[in-house]
Amino acid sequence: MTMIRPVVLAGGDGSHVHPSSSPATPKQFQPLFDEDSPFQDTMERVNGPEFSSPLVFAPQALAGLVQEQCDEIALEYEALLLEKAGSQKAASIVTAALWAEKRGETNPLLVCPADHYIADPYAFMRAVGDAIHTAQQGYLVAFGTVADRAQGDYGYLEVGLRLHTEYSGHHVECFMNKPGTEQAEALLAQGRFVWNTGIVCFTPDIVLAEIEKCNPHYLAACRQMLEGGDLLDYAVCSDLSLEQVMLEHSGNLAVVSLLSAWSDLENIHRLELMGE
Fold this sequence. Notes:
By secondary structure, this protein is of the alpha/beta class. It has nine helices and twelve strands. The chain has helices at 38-45, 63-72, 89-102, 121-135, 181-190, 204-214, 216-226, 242-247, 265-274; strands at 5-9, 55-59, 79-83, 109-113, 116-118, 140-145, 155-162, 170-177, 193-202, 231-232, 253-257, 262-264. The strands form two sheets. The chain has a five-stranded mixed β-barrel with strand order 6-9-7-8-11. α3 packs across α7. The protein is globular and about 45 Å long.
């Protein structure tokens, strides 16, 4: 059995979902639909025989809250990497790959933001199985879900040729990030685009080779940051998104199907404000 190393991104200060969220208790640490928080749901989602203990990224100020919520659900993490200020998904992902490389780990990493709602855990695990197989073929794997409306501030993946008859992995022909509502409507009309959920899977060697090719200066900055001390100081890295650093430039991107209702917390909050 291939063991999967989950990487849980628990950063973010909740600034997009005020007033229900605050820097002291961002919304990913507050109960959503039940007693558990989205962070706890994420930790439970990646708890099973297929998974190693997670690598967790979180702000320094929330270290105690992370430990408290893990204790509540009786789950442990492998390591907690603390961020000095703010959070950067791209830097966290590259750092996770460097952390695994340093430990000699070669198994796939599964990056899960802690601010997601996924309705069907079985659909999630099916997508994970497809992603692991696809990642081991040398791809960077994004999790795509059905785009049911023209959400202009989401990322869109154009689904291309199927990579294997037994798995849902497809080559990504085109990646478009935050196209705006008008262009998103045009993409949906083509019938080939799905939403990029932000969940990604890859083996450490593949993502490091890809970032070395696409943005070697960024990789060097992340190496410097990881070796610089106990706290991750993202100030040494360019303030770029994962899309800008790598996904928009990669010809090695694949997508697997997450056949479940899915949303991030910012979008749930937006729909609440609209009364939907």
